[in-house]
Structure formats: C-alpha cells, structure tokens
Amino acid sequence: MHKILDGKRGIIFGALDDKSIAWKIALKAKAAGANFTLSNAPVALRMGKINELAEQCETSVIAADATKMDDLDALFEQSMEQLGGKLDFVVHSIGMSPNVRKKRHYTNLNHDWYLKTFDISAISFHKVLQTAFQKEAMNQWGSIMALSYIAAQKVFPDYGDMADAKSALESIARSFGYHFGARDKVRVNTVSQSPTMTTAGSGVSGFDRFFDYADKMSPLGNADANACADFCISLMSDYCKMVTMQNLYHDGGFSNMGLNPALLEE
Ligand SMILES: NC(=O)c1ccc[n+]([C@@H]2O[C@H](COP(=O)([O-])OP(=O)(O)OC[C@H]3O[C@@H](n4cnc5c(N)ncnc54)[C@H](O)[C@@H]3O)[C@@H](O)[C@H]2O)c1
After folding, report:
1. Distance 148 CA to ligand 1 centre (A)
2. What's residue 101's pLDDT?
3. Ligand 1 atom closest to the CA of 146, numbered from 1
4. Which residue of 60, 63, 102, 115 shows the fewest CB atoms closer than 10 Å?
C-alpha cells in the first residue's frame, strides 16, 4: 500500500464488525500511513468487535452517539489531543432506520422513528460537520465524507425512509461543503456505494435479491467494501484536493445503466 495518507490524522465513525465499510477503511487508512481514532455509539461498543480493530490500528476507541452534540464535542477534543493536532479527514459511515429494521412499510411509517432515521442517518452528519467547523478542528485541504446510496435519487421501494435520509445527507454535504470550502479549504463529499453485505445492508428486506440485481445490472459488478475503502482513501488523500460538494458513485457503473441485456436473458 502506498503511504498516501502519511502523517494525516482523522476520525473514523461506524466500524461495527469486520464486514463494516468503516472497518475496511480503518485498516486501509492505517496501511496508508494515517493515524486516527475510531468512534461508534456506546451500544455498538458493547455489542461489536471494534476493540479488535483498535488493536490492529494501534489506536483507541472513543464512544460517541453521533446524534449528541456533547458526545461529538468531547470526541473531537480527545481525538485532537490524542493524535497531536488538527485533523485531515473525517469518515461518517453511519446509518440506521428503526422503520426499516422493524419492517414498517413506507406507506405506514412510524413518524417518531422517521425522525430517528433522519437524526441518525443524515442530521448526525451536519452535527459532525458543525462540531468540526466551530472547533476549527480541520487542517486546510482536509477531507470529510459520508457514505450514501442511490436510493437518494431513484426509487428502491424496500429502502423505505432511508431513501429520504440519504437525500438529506447528500444535500448536507453540498451545503456544508460550500461553507467549509470557502472558509478553510476543506472538502465535503458523499460516496454512493453499491449494495454491500454488512449489518446495515442486510437489514433491508429482500437485500439478497437486490444485491444480485445490482450486481448483474452493473457492467463491473457490485463494488465491495474493500474497493469502497480504497476509493475513500484516495478521497482523503492529496490526489483529490479539488473534489468537493460531490456525490460520487462508487457502484461499478450501476447509476448510469438503463437496461442490461444480461438481466433480460434471465
Ligand atoms: N451496506 C450497504 O449496502 C450500503 C450501501 C450504500 C451505503 N451504505 C452506507 O454505509 C454506511 C455504513 O454502513 P455499513 O453498510 O458499513 O453497515 P454497518 O452496520 O456495519 O455500519 C453502520 C454503523 O452505524 C453505527 N451507528 C448507528 N447509530 C449510530 C449512532 N447514533 N451514533 C454513531 N454510530 C451509529 C452502527 O453502530 C454501525 O457501526 C451507512 O451510512 C450505510 O447507509 C451501505
């Protein structure tokens, strides 16, 4: 692995187990020379295996519920102290919908849960950005990213209210990207990833079928979590300095396909 993140510091949110996209990003960021802290919600720390990852990455885990400003405040302070300076990257790899998890149909949502979906999966990104912005926690040319999905643009009925949250997430990246770019030359983007076999992914009903459908529709096939991590590493590096306020498709070509004859033959 080329050391394209040598000397860079950051925070990686959302590694739950070794299937998590954030888990792969952490391993590759370490191999590329970065130093970072890992964070996840307190409940995930109890259930998941993030401490194993921390050992491999020679770092520590700092608990933070990404919907709570006080937690984020403490996380950024501790991370800068532990890493020895301002940050160069932040990875938001967080998503959860109580409605999707409890199989509530989009036409019959629990609206309290709908608010939770938005808070956890979209507004938490604004909270992370606002914390970093107000603390002046980012170095110039730093890179902040969140993981998204194409249901933000096109209808995937089983994705339920997460589709609306992803639309908001991508909008937040654009809106905050302006302010962070203009003041600090910091980049803000979303990466729209193929369906991926993780805890969050397989919580969507019919996931296996839609995974196969996307795999066959995409000329390159589905991008897996490791490939996604490689792409995120490049986005954190100085090779993507002028890329900001974008939603970047990392999906094997799926988003630009209309029809694939391979699917018709089935
Ligand atoms: N798996 C897919 O098919 C797929 C496709 C495109 C985008 N994504 C996105 O990738 C990101 C990562 O998901 P994943 O697939 O690696 O699944 P995952 O389940 O491994 O990761 C989701 C993470 O969100 C964390 N989280 C939930 N609530 C939180 C809170 N309040 N505070 C802090 N963290 C919280 C969980 O603990 C978990 O670590 C999500 O944004 C997801 O929507 C996933």
Report:
1. 10
2. 95
3. 41
4. 102
pLDDT in tens, 76-117: 999 999 999 999 999 999 999 999 999 999 999 999 999 999
Tell me, what's the pLDDT at 80?
Answer: 98
Say whether pTM exceeds 0.90: yes
Query: What's the 2 CA to ligand 1 centre distance in angstroms?
Result: 27
* Tens-place pLDDT, residues 214-230: 999 999 999 999 999 99
- 57 CB near ligand 1 (under 6 Å): no
Q: How far is the CA of 184 from the centre of ligand 1 (A)?
A: 28
Residue pLDDT, tens place only, 186-244: 999 999 999 999 888 887 888 888 899 999 999 999 999 999 999 999 999 999 999 99
Residue 64 tokens read as 């933070």
State if residue 199 touches ligand 1 by the CB under 6 angstroms criterion: yes
Question: Which residue, judged by its Cα, is nearest atom 10 of ligand 1?
Answer: 147
pLDDT recorded at residue 1: 74
CATH architecture label of 9-264: 3-Layer(aba) Sandwich (3.40)
Dist. CA 199 → ligand 1 center (Å):
8
CA of 138 to the centre of ligand 1 (A): 23
